[in-house]
Amino acid sequence: MNAYKTYVTVTESQELVLSNLPFKPGQKVEVIVLAEEDKRAMLAEEMRKLFKETQAIPVIQDITEEEIQAEIDAYRRENENY
Predict the structure, then answer these.
(1) What superkingdom does the record give (predicted)?
(2) What is the mean pLDDT of each run of 10 residues along the chain (82 residues)?
(3) Nearest one of 9, 55, 1 to 33, comparing CA atoms
(4) How many domains does the chain divide into?
């Protein structure tokens, strides 16, 4: 089977227009339409899920804001020369 890949945008009337195809007139073709996913939105959703799962871990819930700040300060002191 001969494959042809192109990118088009759905029109306001919710149609796709394919032109200049490399096939013969009257030739039967199979059409599969795949919507392009918004990768940035997908990554953001994955991060939200990860944060929610992480925050649900019982040990994590016992960490105070002061402990978090102390970790940040220690990291910055160790890496201030970079």
Answers:
(1) Bacteria
(2) 90 94 95 87 91 87 90 92 67
(3) 9
(4) 1
